[in-house]
Specification:
63% strand; 164 residues; mainly beta
């Protein structure tokens, strides 16, 4: 896990090593997860979270903290590639794809392990509502490791980001 995090941080710093304008932001998220536990049906969790990140015209990197009830917690690092404005034809709507790695804590009666890590992909659409605020609609798929009966988590996220 540490090696993956260090690799992503080194890739991040090398991508942004040239002189470019960065836009820092903070945000709030609401996410719904479908947690695939092998011994029982899928569990549904709704989580709320915080984000901190920086964005350029082509890249976005952020740390996300998600909390749901007492059973689900995650902390992830996301690196997204913002696709060209020409795809949607309007600069207010910008699709993106990205990768994520993070740590997870999930307490459930149906699994023995409570801590692990995940990696995965996400894709979404950034909608610029004002000069300082954007809305983010995304889908995520995470492959979970170090859990005996927990294989994957997938779901949708809605976020609001404030650029300062």
């Amino acid at each position: 896990m540490l090696r993956i995090t260090l690799l992503l941080l080194s890739v991040y710093t090398s991508l942004f090593s040239y002189e470019t304008e960065e836009f820092p932001f903070i945000g709030l998220t609401v996410s719904t997860q479908s947690i695939d536990i092998a011994t029982i049906d899928k569990q549904k969790e709704t989580s709320y979270g915080l984000r901190y990140g920086k964005q350029t015209t082509d890249w976005r990197t952020m740390f996300s903290l998600a909390l749901a009830s007492n059973s689900y917690r995650s902390l992830g690092l996301e690196i997204d590639r913002i696709l060209s404005d020409e795809i949607m034809g309007m600069p207010e709507f910008r699709p993106y794809i990205g990768a994520v790695v993070g740590a997870l804590k999930y307490d459930s009666d149906s699994i023995e392990d409570t801590r692990g890590y995940y990696y995965g992909l996400n894709a979404g659409l950034i909608i610029y509502t004002t000069d300082n605020i954007d809305a983010d609609l995304s889908y995520h798929y995470y492959k979970v490791k170090d859990f005996e009966n927990l294989d994957k988590i997938e779901g949708a996220t809605f976020s609001l980001h404030y650029f300062y």
